[in-house]
Amino acid sequence: MAVLPDETPVPGLMTRLSRMDRFGLFLAGFILAYAAASFALEHVLGVIGFAKAPYLNAITYLYALGFIVLGIAFNKVDLGFAMPHPLGALMLAVLFISAVIGISNGNASQYIVGWSLYIVTGVLAFQFFRHPKGIEVTASGTVATLFSPAFLLLVLLFAFLSIFNKDNHYQYVLFEVIAIYAVLLRPRIIEKALGAAIYLCIHLGSNDGFVQVEINRASILAVGAIGFLWLLYRRHLVVLFFVIFAAIGGLLYALSLDDQVVEDLPRNIKEAILLMKGDDIYNHISSYQRVYEGQKVMEDFQAASDTEWLFGKGLGRTVDMTGAADKTPGQHALLGATEVHNVHFLHFAVFHKFGLAGLGLLVVFGAGLIWMFAVDLAGGRMSDATLFFYFYLFYNFVFAFPASNFLIANPLWPAFLGLLCKIRSAPATSPALTEFARPL
Questions:
Q1: pLDDT tens per residue across span 224-240
Q2: Distance CA 58, CA 79 (A)
Q3: Transmembrane region positions (predicted)?
């Protein structure tokens, strides 16, 4: 009787998903949820521009919250999850006080609920990835998942499709960091090529049928910040000196350009050069909009109590933008131009809702991130994999300074920070630093 060869059963989808690095799976689901929601809002419901923001925020935060709840249900966290980090506990305390002030001041209830969801989910995401059970979550596992050719092709697809749509169908910061990291640190040529293609697609846009280069000043500053980190990591101190020297030389050259030459440059770069040359900020609507918002925030504090100076005007506080030269934020605001909630500059946005206490927390997060990087670099604990997390955290923090929503309404930032804290708490030889998850 013939003996049939053993047939290895093909694993099902759920089995393959369970083998993935958990943080990589979280990011993959986030990218798909964001893209699906963005496509549906633009092409089915006709919602575009700033008007999409509250709906995209709601969907991505509900996704993050659902992922955390499923993780808890399947026993994927240890007991430390139930004990918040002191900074997390402090954030929740400040949130509670700000919510009480917001309710007592009669602020917009929609935004009180929304920002409460942001912060509570952010603390939970930090705890969830800071306290995984076992070694299922690894820095190298996440990088292996994100930078597999199949995943990079998916990222490239969404970046390419967004060239021909009114809005991006991806989280800009995440895709930008993936592209730059692939070019700088991934070993294979195919990964570097895909990273370069993604970066190119991110900075291309269509206008009246013509494809053109698009870039903003926040992106330039953020790219410069992670380029600085990369040079420090590689110990290219001499190169770093010449890069800084070249940047100063390039700046001086840009300031020497004739105004007619500057006029032909991309809008954001043109505005930056003209402003540095002494042009009046009132002549540049988008730049002045941020200053105007700050003025309106400070006007709101003219009759503020000591408690409000300390803890802000409360969650849900809005500003009247009917007098703004840039009508776009008011036109797309959920409650209309008289009650605009989004304030671009990060320090004004935080101060308006959380006061000096909120600004103090913001400084602690920024200084803490710098300290963590410096300690890991000096102690020889930095690896290519952990540098990916620092890239995202630093890029996002710098990028959000003139665009606060990218930090405040972003569930990925606390998740990245939580996993990085978990990685840093492990011994240098721990699998959390070195082990790769099994491929999908």
A1: 899 889 988 988 776 66
A2: 28
A3: 23-41, 53-74, 86-104, 110-129, 141-163, 169-186, 217-233, 238-256, 354-375, 387-408
